[in-house]
Design a protein that fits this description.
Elements (H helix, E strand, L loop, with lengths): L3 H26 L3 H21 L1 H4 L3 H26 L12 H11 L9 H19 L5 H27 L13 H46 L10 H18 L3 E8 L2 H8 L1 H17 L6 E6 L2 E7 L3 H11 L16 E7 L6 H19 L1
Antiparallel strand pairs: 1-3, 1-4, 2-3
Amino acid sequence: MMPVYEFSLLIQAAGTALLFVLFLLVYQKIHLRALLEWIASWGFLLAGLTVLWFAPALGLGRRVFFSHNAALLLHAFFLLRGIRRFRNEKASSGAELLWLLPILGGAWMVAAGGQAGPSALVALILAAAYIAAAVSFAMTPGSNVGRLLLSVSFLLWSVEQAVVGAAFLHSRESAQLPGTLQYSGFAAMLLEMMVAVGVILLLFEASQTRLASEMEQLRHSDQLLKEKSVRDPLTGLYNRGHFNEVLRRELVRTRLAGAALSVLLADVDRFKQINDRMGHAVGDDVLKFVANYLTSCVRESDFVFRWGGDEFLILLPRTEEEVAAQKAEELGHRLPRIPGVKHVQPSLSVGWATHRSGQEFSATLAVADSRMYDMKVKGR
């Protein structure tokens, strides 16, 4: 009949294997770097338990218990490394793997030939590592239930390892452990199941948070693309294609409010001469300056469009005819000097019109265009 300690060890190994497989399955769905560390951690724990269970058949030699001790210490190392990486993806570095050398050296030193159980020192080191894990999970953002389960599980696991370690200080044979401690593997298995539930809860909330962040980035990208589609790439003003959408909305608003809707058409005087004489780069600078100038001279509720070429359209909601005419005269004055552009002093010809109820807006634009042309002729 199998001794109680060996049977409890077999049960713990089965639970560890189940948790190892669970981590592998979860990693296929959630590619989190911390999970890779925990997969390695539970892989080493499973290896350590397997070596200990087969120790009688393999022979109670130094190499067998070196393998066992090294596996348990590596389990603790990758457990804590995974927690650190879970809290901060960029926290861990490859340089930390240099710790593997002193870990393996320490495992070799504490391995005792002929020992029939795990080292007391290794058990106490595991207890300290589990306490550190409990504290770390308690301070980790995420699911409150998951954090509580993990903290309590690792805290109880540390107590179990500390008691077992203290027992091994007095008894070098696992079969000579007190009767209650013969069942320690059952307790460890139950605690590992609690750890599994806590990790799943934390990972689920982390994946939900990441998904929400990605959705927000997609919405932001969609807004940027939509904004880009309605903007003129040179001046940053609304383009002509966006005008119809804005016009429909503003016509409804002004009709419901019983207010007037006016429009200004502005054209850069002698722009072709500027392009031909100074080059297209200077011409582009002039257009960008005019766009900024017009935007700064109107209200936030007004809309400035690049109408085409060197023409600009300004839509003035809730603006009466007299105010529109005054604004056209104000903008028609000579522009300020353009910084960085010498020997160029452009001016604007601006026409205006106020939309009449029941009239096609194209007729309103025709009136503004005619007045702009008259102003241009007078300026010559």
